[in-house]
Design brief:
mainly alpha, electron transfer activity, two-stranded antiparallel sheet, iron, metal ion binding, Cytochrome Bc1 Complex, Chain D, domain 2, 38% helix, signal, single chain, Cyt_c-like_dom_sf
Length: 348
């Protein structure tokens, strides 16, 4: 091969490398492999048989997730209240801020590992991920829009005509394909690469410190009944003795109208707590030490208090100062930096 040919190949190599560096998102998407269950996770509950994740469907769902035209005045997207760097929560707000800066009554829950969820939202009422986006889109204090108006706006954009055609074989935009596309993005928001996960998978070099290991043993003794591994939630709705808030949020009762469901809220995952504060359904605790102290000494004997918090003649979970330090050390191992920096989940 002569010198001229070497120069051509060298230039092509530099060009390709530069393209990859300049377009990391494009490179990530091109390597798209679809949904894969992490080795240390159980089987998902989402109905993939009726909505398999495809590259085109995921790309469409991702575009819709960050599309402000889903709101009445085209200013609020799903990604406005579910920010990736905060593990898809609205970091810094005790309750969500929606359209026209209207305040909700609950903290934005994280979007992660939803393929394993059987119920959605802090107070329940939705039991299929494909239906969940209806609530924020139509809620007065969130996006305040109608689905038909959303579809009308999207139909006027050639970009979405092409994306829907690529994903579903037709440019038609309706509720069925719109919701399936959003689900295809959301089920791919998988957090499974924390240090805890690597330890459980016995990956090389992954191990707990002594404080973390002590915290893990304590967690299994005192917390795992509600925050079951590896998702760190049992998906149930429980009353954890927060006391009645000024807005008197009745929790699950609002959806079921069953008296014993009053003040029950969905058990959140403990993954990525470093990124998801403030904590609880109404964001009342600004720090994790505050959460632990609640369980140690501040649990209120409210109606329907979970039986696990009323044992041996007392309410709450006794946690010494050392217990709390060790628990905090263990909980830190559930942070998944790869998840919050996963470029394929980011806005373009």
């Amino acid at each position: 091969m002569n010198r001229k040919h070497w120069l051509v190949l060298l230039c092509m190599g530099i060009f390709i490398t530069a393209c990859k560096k300049d377009n990391p998102l494009k490179q990530e998407i091109e390597q798209f492999l679809g949904f894969h269950k992490p080795d240390n996770f159980p089987d998902p509950t989402y109905h993939f048989a009726t909505n398999p994740v495809t590259k085109a469907g995921f790309e469409l769902g991702r575009a819709l997730f960050y599309e402000p035209r889903l709101s009445r005045n085209n200013t609020i997207s799903c990604g406005s209240c579910h920010i990736q760097s905060s593990a898809f929560t609205q970091h810094g707000h005790d309750v969500s801020h929606g359209i026209d800066d209207r305040l909700g009554t609950r903290n934005s829950p994280p979007i992660m590992n939803l393929a394993w969820n059987k119920a959605f939202m802090w107070g329940g009422g939705v039991y299929d991920l494909d239906l969940q986006p209806v609530t924020p889109i139509t809620a007065h204090e969130e996006m305040d829009e109608s689905l038909e108006n959303v579809y009308s706006k999207l139909r006027d954009m050639p970009k979405y005509q092409q994306l829907f055609r690529s994903a579903f074989g037709s440019a038609e935009i309706n509720t069925a394909v719109f919701m399936k596309a959003l689900s295809q993005f959301m089920v791919m928001c998988i957090s499974s690469n924390s240090r805890y996960d690597k330890i459980m998978r016995k990956e090389a070099g992954a191990s707990f410190t002594s404080a973390e290991l002590n915290g893990y043993h304590l967690f299994k003794e005192k917390c795992a009944s509600c925050h079951a591994e590896p998702l760190f939630t049992d998906g149930a709705f429980r009353n954890n003795g927060l006391g009645i808030s000024p807005v008197n949020d009745l929790g699950l009762y609002t959806a079921t109208l069953i008296e014993t469901d009053k003040y029950k809220f969905k058990v959140p995952s403990l993954r990525n707590l470093t990124y998801t504060g403030p904590y609880m359904h109404d964001g009342r605790f600004l720090s994790l030490p505050g959460v632990l102290e609640h369980y140690n000494s501040e649990v209120q004997p409210t109606p329907n208090l979970d039986p696990l918090l009323r044992q041996n003649g007392r309410v709450g979970i006794p946690l010494s100062g050392d217990d709390q330090k060790n628990l905090l050390a263990f909980l830190k191992t559930l942070d998944d930096e790869e998840f919050i920096k996963n470029i394929s989940l980011s806005e373009q």
